[in-house]
Amino acid sequence: MAHPLRRDEVFGLIHPAVDAHTLGISSVGQLLQDCGYTVVIADAHVCAAANQPSHLDNVEIVHRWIRRHGITRLGFSYRLDPVEGAERFDRLVYQLRSRRMLAEQGGPLRGIYFAGLPEACERVLQEHGDLVETFDGDETPAETLRKLGVPRSHIPSAMSAEADYDEFRLRFGQELVDSGKHLRIPPPDHGGYPEFGTAQDTVLARIRYAQQMGQLPLTRAHVGPYLPDREAAVRLFLHWTRDLARAGFLDVLSIGTSQLSQSHFGEHWTGLPNGGGVPINSPEEFRMVWREARPMLVRTYAGTKNIPQLARMYEETIHIAWHALSFWWFCQIDGRGPYPVRQNLEQHIETLRFIAETGKPFEPNIPHHFAFRGADDVSYVVSSVLAARTAKYLGVRTLILQNMLNTPKSTWGVQDLAKSRALLVLVRELEDERFRVVLQPRAGLDYFSPNLERAKVQLAAVTALMDDIEPHNPNSPPLIHVVSYSEASHLADPPVINESIQITLAALQEYRRLRAKDEVEDMARHPEVRARTEELLRDARTVLKAIEQSIPHPYSAEGLYRIFRAGFLPVPYLWEGREEFVHAVRRQTRLIQGSVKVVDERGIPIAVEQRVQEAMANAGACSDTE
Fold it and tell me: Which residues sit opposite 597 in a β-bridge?
């Protein structure tokens, strides 16, 4: 059993060299440092040794590392194969025992921790019992500190208050799900306007009607089963579409097409790897989807090849509710499409011109892809604003502003609120009689637990977070992208999708009822959210101003390419194209008090003015050599 935590503890955090999942290690280390503890994160040499703890030379390397740094608490993280993870940890503990390193043997280690997949944690607990505290990745920052044994008196008041907000929302979600109130939520009645369910129906018409009836938000969900037999998969999808249409909970069916549907539409797929998603491969199959989906609105992924042509086909077949483009992404640098970045941008700009002609809304499917690759919060905001400005410049009249929360999953709620509000302020500055913004928040892709009951609680908790973005606006958010609670476990079928919508709508109703009774904190007045929002606004404006000063025609394909190449949008975890975008990958980022910031080699945040000066110099050098 771990000994009580003292103020002079030194935490040593180690992960095998084969495991690249280091974000959790960094997050825990930062939490402990914020609480005043010394943290030592093992270097590559020690991590490589820990990967083979049975070798005596490797054991000696780990032993010397522990002794040299005075480590009293040892954490071991392995998030790959659960059997291998548990076995490696077992061998390490055996070697530590054999060298009498544990406190009960007179050694220095007063606590040992293991972080891994749920199955690995179960194996470790069965083998070691109370000797080891385990972490399966579901823990909030507050839960992490409790399991590490950090006394509440050692947690900074600001961190404690921010953690309390996240903990409160989870308790709220638990009570809601335990009560079963969500199961009594009926389908909304959004069908009282003339265009409803017809080819002339639009998302704006449905929003207007739902607002008049006091029944916002609309809901949108991804649906897309995959089977090895292509035709069987399409039949199953059509069956699911009919079920969803009959149930009446879902407003917008978002077709989760397969990779080959996006990159090789209408071609022969023999011998080509596909991946997940429904493998639609003809205009007629899209028309079948639209017919079965009545009265839902329908949309789908953009193509990754022949992008303008596919956008036109979506208009003709599914009367697409709105288009989504990713600008720098879904191309060679993320393995999702055949085009290099510059050509991808050219295709997207051409498609945007077509979208403007149709009068349909545009959704930038962009900022979270930067976040997936380690971008900081400022870059998240700036990338979305750049897309919005480009859209308006090219004549688009409505922007669906997708905002993925919980990305990375260790982001604190107060930081998500600040990021969301800063983004809204900057994009809404573009609004006029010719340009409108529709907020569409969603949960993060990796936020949900594989434990389905906990995932339902998390869905309710993140819905409360969405409502706190604009807590005094009863019509916000007008549109929610509902991520199904089974995201981390299995593909969502219609019953799961419908229940996820019920949880979302019930959470909104209950949270607003509690707010009306002053039983939830007024997050509009939260001092940390307001301060962080102002900081993000100031830094984002600095970056945007520098871009416009140093990049000719920034809202063109060439301009957007140069912005990325000059390093205005850091992405340290970009794996493909690192030589082409050397300035974009040069800087590192770090999770600091629940937000992501660009840091120097010592882990100290870098002022945005310094980043901007470097990027402007890079922009000048690039233009001189091109």
Answer: 590
